[in-house]
TrEMBL record:
UniProt similarity note: Belongs to the nuclease type I family.
GO biological process: DNA catabolic process
Broad EC category: hydrolase
Source taxon at top rank: Eukaryota
Entry-linked InterPro entries: PLipase_C/P1_nuclease_dom_sf (IPR008947), S1/P1nuclease (IPR003154)
Reaction equations catalysed: Endonucleolytic cleavage to 5'-phosphomononucleotide and 5'-phosphooligonucleotide end-products
Signal peptide positions (record): none
Record key words, sorted: Disulfide bond, Endonuclease, Glycoprotein, Hydrolase, Metal-binding, Nuclease, Signal
UniProt-recorded name of the protein: Aspergillus nuclease S1
Gene3D superfamilies given in the database record: P1 Nuclease
GO molecular function, one term: single-stranded DNA endodeoxyribonuclease activity
EC number: 3.1.30.1
Amino acid sequence: MYILYANAELACNIGGSQYHFLNSKMPFLRGISASFIVFLTCVVVHKPGVQAWSMEGHAMTCKIAQDLLEPEAHHAVQMLLPDYVNGDLSVLCVWPDQVRHWYRSCEARKRRGTIWDCHDPKGVKDMCVAGAIRNFTNQLSHYHHGTSDRRYNMTEALLFLAHFMGDIHQPMHVGFTSDGGGNTVELRWFRHQANLHHVWDREIILTAAANYYGKDINLLQQDIQGNFTEGIWSSDLASWRECSHISSCENKYAAESMDTACKWGYKGVESGDALSDDYFNSRLPIVTKRIAQGGVRLAMILNRVFAGDSLEMEETLVAT
Ligand SMILES: *[C@@H]1O[C@H](CO)[C@@H](O)[C@H](O)[C@H]1NC(C)=O
Ligand SMILES: *[C@@H]1O[C@H](CO)[C@@H](O)[C@H](O)[C@H]1NC(C)=O
Ligand SMILES: *[C@@H]1O[C@H](CO)[C@@H](O)[C@H](O)[C@H]1NC(C)=O
């Protein structure tokens, strides 16, 4: 739907890593010193198929989250979902991509040590993926105010939040403006044509499903869940969930994505390359980890807003 792009050079200075492939690709950037201002641009992409996480990635994020809901949040989600999905949030996690009338374009800037300030070209605040997450989290925090004075459509707020929490964890969603988050990096994925954005959206997931899970996405999702309940990520779970204010942690998620886009997304890739086993094997663990983190953090936010953490939200809004 809409994409949070980062200026190439600055993106790769986040986390202290510097990859000179950037300079070689974009000579005009060579020599620009790494300033402490990061510019991000969010652009609406109207082309179908250009989105962060494919249907499969979003559905897994939402299923993982839904399985982690505490009774109160579970109940609220059931109340908000339309009957025809039979209580399954994941069915509607791509819905926001189908109603793409939301964002034009936006720009976010970050000064070292301060929070993201994102706004659209007219200066309207919060117009970026992180802003959207804040917005819809805030709307959901009004859930306990009762049906009569609800200013917002809580169902829509839930679906948007669920969707954007997936998006912000897809590293190429926070790729470079100059190449549309990898969309213009045309290459081959094993034998067929693809682009770098799509590799991260979908190809890696589908190749994993085909190679290791008999094409059953549910088995892949269960393997991901197994890895954070008792497997390799179980000791990381607490840190993934850590968030002192539910309205401020999306900046961290965006920064992680940017860092990952540099270190794993773009690294070693040129237009025209043929990506295969090496790229697939080294990136699959990153993709599955981002899906796991997205799901775990979506659950964390929903558990907190529906447990009546709305006070926390409002205090935060006043404070910022
Ligand atoms: C916030 O939510 C409102 C109402 O749902 C919507 O009109 C607006 O575009 C949203 N803004 C952002 C930045 O998501
Ligand atoms: C909320 O939004 C959904 C999806 O757009 C719509 O189907 C539903 O009727 C809306 N609910 C209310 C109370 O307006
Ligand atoms: C889960 O962890 C095992 C290693 O313990 C690894 O081989 C497997 O690929 C992981 N699966 C996913 C989906 O992350």
